[in-house]
Design a protein that fits this description.
By secondary structure, this protein is an alpha+beta fold. The protein has a single domain, classed as 3-Layer(aba) Sandwich (Aminopeptidase), CATH 3.40.630.30. It is built from six helices and seven strands; from the N terminus they run βαααβββαβαββα. Strands 1-2-3-4-5-7-6 form a seven-stranded mixed β-sheet. The N and C termini lie close together (12 Å).
Length: 174
């Protein structure tokens, strides 16, 4: 893994972040046959305006910087007291399999802990077993599924209890 850093995203970087999300989620859209017509809300089709709206509503956004460029992204949105939704976690395809996704996830855990959160919630394409297994390996627990009429897939829900990890956890050091 090359040297990397994580920084809060500024409004001026939202275009770049949207592009990272589109490229990162694009491989999943291709694998699962998602298109603008059958799943316009998927990250592969995200527009900068959506990120701007999320930021204006208080979502926390972070960029992973590798080689002086944005190579990854993630967003935290307060769901309820102590619960935060981790969304749009994306790494550019050419930077995958080097631990950058884990770096972003570890940062999310650290941030949620700092702001007094107790739980991180995520939703995924349930049949994306590679992603589901990755989150399970990181300590997330599968808590259910829902089939929404407007989506061409079943949504899987997972959560991670922040209290289950301390500063010395292997998860936070690996």
């Amino acid at each position: 893994m090359r040297r990397c850093s994580i920084c809060e995203v500024s409004v001026s970087e939202l275009d770049q972040c949207a592009e990272v999300i589109r490229k990162g989620f694009g491989t999943v859209a291709d694998e699962f046959g998602l298109t603008v017509e059958n799943c316009a809300s998927h990250g592969a089709f995200i527009k900068t305006e959506r990120l701007l709206g999320d930021k204006e509503r208080g979502s926390l956004m972070y960029a992973l910087i590798v080689d002086d460029m944005i190579a990854g992204f993630m967003q935290l949105e307060k769901e309820s007291d102590g619960q935060y939704i981790l969304g749009k976690l994306a790494v550019l395809p050419e930077y995958r399999h080097h631990g950058y996704g884990t770096v972003l996830l570890e940062y999310a855990v650290k941030k949620v802990r700092e702001i007094g959160g107790r739980k991180i919630l995520i939703s995924i394409i349930e049949s994306n077993t590679v992603l589901r297994n990755w989150y399970l390996e990181k300590g997330f627990v599968h808590v259910g599924t829902v089939k929404y009429e407007h989506l061409p897939f079943v949504v899987g829900f997972m959560e991670l209890s922040i209290d289950a990890y301390d500063e010395k956890s292997d998860f936070l050091r690996s």
